[in-house]
Write a structure and sequence with these properties.
alpha/beta, Oxidized Rhodanese, domain 1, four-stranded parallel beta sheet, 5 helices, 4 strands, 40% helix, 18% strand
């Protein structure tokens, strides 16, 4: 997972609410709230995979990863957006 983030492989998808996302996010991430995942499958499929899912703690991104995996989308639960941001900032 860390390697995917460092090498910019895939797309970072933040599944927090728009309000949370506006409060701080990973550079170049896409905000698709957990409650919108099922309605936005086509959009998610069009993103560069694997999808690296993050949220506040890793709980919501874990739920999203389970669902998207069942839909045949390559994705990983990257946990907290703060952790993802820390890893990504090491590469810039």
């Amino acid at each position: 997972m860390e390697q995917h983030i460092k090498e910019n492989k895939g797309t970072i998808v933040d599944v927090r609410t728009p309000e949370e996302y506006r409060g701080g996010q990973v550079a170049d991430s896409v905000n698709i709230p957990l409650q919108e995942i099922s309605q936005r499958l086509d959009e998610l499929r069009s993103l560069k995979q694997p999808l690296l899912l993050c949220c506040a703690s890793g709980n919501r991104s874990g739920m999203a990863a389970q669902y998207l995996t069942s839909e045949g989308i390559e994705c990983y639960n990257a946990g907290s957006w703060l952790d993802v941001n820390a890893i990504k900032s090491q590469t810039t």
